[in-house]
Amino acid sequence: MSIAEVVPSLLSGLAVPGCDNTLDLPASRRVCLLLVDGLGHHLLRSHASHAPFLSSLAGREIDAGFPSSTATSLASIGTGLLSGEHGIVGYTFETGGEVLNALSWSRHGDHHHDLRASLVPEVVQPHPTTFERAAAAGVAVSTVAPLMHRGSGLTRAVLRGSWFVGTAGFGDLAVAAASALSADRAFCYAYHADLDTIGHIYGPGSEQWLLQLEFVDSLAERIASRLPAGSALVVTADHGMITAGERVDFDTEPLLWEGVRVIAGEPRVRYLHVSSPSVVSVWRSFLGERAEVLTREEAVEAGWFGPVAPIAVDRIGDVVVAMQGDAVLVRSQAERQLAALKGFHGARTREEVAIPLLWQVV
């Protein structure tokens, strides 16, 4: 049971052709799907007292897929596919001769270098979205998300096909989400980012993170209280998070440079494009139990990415490095802000992959 099945399962209740309710979710003609960035299943369960409303909802644990990263999971929400098929294989990946930052749709390390013209979002992710399929079936489809996401590369790539409503905070998010369900057949996807941001900066489970969780719990409850009778509120996440322990710094370890042409990904999962097959053995020996180091072929054979289409193959790189435990592989010079964070995600631990799927029919 994965994040890729969430929207098709909900659209099944809206009679959208080709959508099956594989997750056995309650059927409703009006659905609000709230995605809380960074709300891992294990984090919610460990801190249930700070989220009494969310903890009271019916639900189960599902998987975010791999990598357990925001851009990848949002693409799965928007396409109904896993990363190996939709091709948004992480926070950053090489494609078209660039290392693309999929969140900002810019050259990695240079947010001012907009790549929407050269790496056209609808080409980078060409599959029809679940939102387009729903709209074609007559469903009123809305996306309620931060104003800055309007027309962004990632929105165009994976969330196209919906009416976009930009928000500035909790208040207009709650009002807009409820208002989006005024039609007889309506689906609203609402996105909240701040819990993830707080987790990255202060660490998941920190005092700041717990207070933000309380705010998120109130947000979900207030959305539910405003929905038309018979509507379904469904809450999920894109990944969990761990607090970093040991930091391995690629930029200060010359042994790791040999044979590596490009390093992409993020601190919990890295993609290496290499010029020498010896990179695998060197990295395995150096990292030991701190990481799983697989060739692309091994990772694909192991099913890490689900079915893998040609569009995703080169983006995965030649070598995949998934960190284990609480170790992170940072770049102190090339990614200074990223390297300084406390909370991370992207790898294959249950703390990062397990996400909640919660629901209530109001």
From TrEMBL:
| GO molecular function per UniProt | hydrolase activity
InterPro entries attached to this UniProt entry: Alkaline_phosphatase_core_sf, Phosphodiest/P_Trfase
Superkingdom classification of source: Bacteria
Gene3D superfamilies assigned:
Alkaline Phosphatase, subunit A
Name this polypeptide is given: Phosphodiesterase
